Amino acid sequence: MKGAKTSEGLLDIRLTFFFSAAYFFRAGAPSGDVRPTPRNGRVRYFFEDYALDTDRRELRRGADVVPTTPQVFDLLDYLICNREHVVSKDDLVSVIWKGRIVSDAALTTRLNAARSVIGDSGDEQRLIKTLPRKGFRFVGAVHETNRPSGAATVPDSGAESSQPLLALPDKPSIAVLPFQNMSGDPEQEYFADGMVEDIISGLSRIGWLFVIARNSSFTYKGRSVDVKQVRRELGVRYVLEGSVRKAGSRVRITGQLVDATTGGHIWVDRFDGALEDVFDLQDRVTASVVGAIEPRLQRAEIERARQKPTESLDAYGCFLRGMASYHLSTRDSLLEARELCRRATELDPNYASPYGMAAECIHVGKVNGWLADPEREIAEGVRLARRAAALGKDDPTALWFSGICLAYFVGELETGAAHIERALALNPNLARAWSASGWVRLYLGEPIDAIERFERAMRLSPLDHSAYVGFVGMGLAHLLADRYDDAAYWARKARHEQPNWATTLRVAAIVYALSDRIVEAREAMARMREIDPDLRLSNLARVAAAFRRPEDLARYTEGLRKAGLPE
Fold first, then answer.
1. CA-CA distance, 457 to 424, in Å (whole number)?
2. 51 beta partners
3. Can you tell me the distance from the alpha carbon of 219 to that of 47, in angstroms, rounded to the nearest whole number?
4. Which of 150, 429, 539, 549 is at 20 to 30 A from 76, Cα to Cα?
């Protein structure tokens, strides 16, 4: 609201009048969740219509240079570089002010200045978000390019400063953006997000349609975004936007389909119904979208794509809440997701997806070393995965969850691969299933096929916050295909995206060691052992995959030994 003071502005006033030692702090070293700003080459970040160039130390909007002070530039650079994490006050002061004593007021002034130069504000927080008592995070969608220092550059132009345009696929393509929750109740956010996930799922099963995955679409959540920006960043022709209002037993879904190449509206419609008709409403939205793109669509395609619980809407609500927790991918959120899935299956014992998602939560927990009782929990994960596959023969989500878990937990590679292949036959746009398929193909000793599947996943979800999982797989697949330079590239890219995941560091250490990059290998191993200090070659089975070819496991083990993992 015009004239309103931001929370940062109020802090400035309080500090001006109550200046005392209580409002100062001294920063220590940055926390382990953030990474130093890269300085080993030219890095360019593209967001909205801005480009930040670390080599030239320029911020541009289109073809115009935006005047920026050195400290504000460094602040933007650091926040964008560490955009996957919340950055604390101590982190900022340690890096930007080199650990000098700095007041909250000075920090707030710089943050407001950083927001101002990129068209943001303390009220809107569209790009730089303040998380009370935690810190700050850059939440805008960012495309990053790297170029070695000294490399030839293209002359500056407006076109060069814009994000590179992804080519349109060879079939109709669409991104479904997060719908706005119009209920006035933050607790209903999961419901609005669930609507979108189900619409994405329904569209994804239409074989002739290219649908961007949920994880990339949801990078735009909570932001006002130009559809032409979505066109650039995701490479799609159509964008679906909308809102959901849930009040009592009634639901209203409003949607608008936009041609992202022109910005023109194709249709706008509203769908009203009772809560018990919510699945029919979703199907009507899906049918309307696809019907607008392809008039020959038959209603039977939507009917065949429908996989919802028939017994209990409460079970569906639990699953949606569980899915929201699962996507957070923290130790606590995965435990919460497992509990919500358990409640969903108690309410509807024949609902396949919650069994599969609970098994996948255990899989992620095992990979990260988060299981309190590994033997018991893995046995439970196997049981859940088998149950998901038995109930979900036509549910692609349940099938890919089941497939990757059975492959990883008990080495049932052919069974796991078959489940995932069926999931992809049912839903050819399921990016996470393509990535899971890449991992299973890698375990089966088929690295070239694995690479193609990881590439398909990346194209379906170009802005995926968990893309590093595919990058790690690409690194290992290139290694097993004897492409050492490519393996090192992907290992480095994975570490850049997620430097605090044990699997990223293990694979990086292996790739670097077997590529004779011993210094990098030892550094990655040292960091990995900080995260997983108990890992040894003698207990490697607790994290190593079930490689079908003995030579692949031997190479994996030798890489860790050469990188310095103790016996």
1. 11
2. 46, 60
3. 12
4. 150
Q: What is the spatial distance between Cα 416 and Cα 227, in angstroms, rounded to a whole number?
A: 38
For the chain, state the CA radius of gyration.
Answer: 24
Q: Work out the number of other CB atoms within 10 angstroms of the CB of residue 212.
A: 29
| Residues 259-288: tens digit of each pLDDT | 888 787 777 777 787 777 777 777 777 666
The residue with greater pLDDT, 290 or 176, is: 176
- Domains and their CATH numbers in the chain: 7-146 (1.10.10.10), 173-305 (3.40.50.10610), 314-425 (1.25.40.10), 429-567 (1.25.40.10)
Going by their DSSP bridges, the two strands 238-247 and 173-176 should be labelled as: parallel
Residue 9 has pLDDT above 70, yes or no: no
Choice between 212 and 98, residue whose per-residue pLDDT is larger: 212
Relative to beta strand 42-47, strand 143-147 is antiparallel
Phi and psi for 9 in degrees, rounded to 5? -65, -40
SS3 state of residue 163: coil
Q: Is residue 193 helix, strand or coil?
A: helix
Which residues make Cβ contacts (< 8 Å) with residue 497, sequence separation at least 6? 84, 467, 468, 471
Cβ–Cβ under 8 Å, residues 469 and 505: no
In three-state secondary structure terms, 532 is: coil
The answer to whether residues 200 and 217 touch, using CB atoms and an 8 Å cutoff, is yes
Give per-residue burial for 52-77: e unless 16+ CB within 10 Å, then b: bbbbeebbbbeeeebebeeebbbbbb
> Phi, psi (5° rounding) for residue 549?
-90, 125
pLDDT tens track for 61-113: 766 678 888 888 989 999 998 888 888 888 888 888 876 777 777 788 888 88
DSSP tag of 444? T
Bridge partners, residue 257, by sequence: 240, 267
Please, are residues 245 and 228 in contact by the beta-carbon 8 Å criterion? no
Give the Cα separation of 24 and 101 in Å (integer): 7
Q: Which residues contact 215 (CB under 8 A, 6 or more apart)?
A: 327, 431, 432, 461, 463, 464, 465, 466
CA distances to 109, 323, 516, 553 from 559, in Å = 49, 36, 10, 10
> pTM of this prediction?
0.57
Quick one: tokens of 288?
């309307």
Q: Tokens at residue 437, please?
A: 């398929």
Give the other-Cβ count within 10 Å of 143's Cβ: 17
Task: Report the alpha-carbon distance of residue 530 to residue 205 in Å, rounded.
Answer: 43
Report phi then psi at 87, rounded to 5.
-100, 125
Amino acid at 244: V
Element (H, E) at 259: strand 250-259
CA 376 to chain centre: 29
Which of these, 174, 8, 171, 226, lies nearest to 104 by C-alpha position? 8
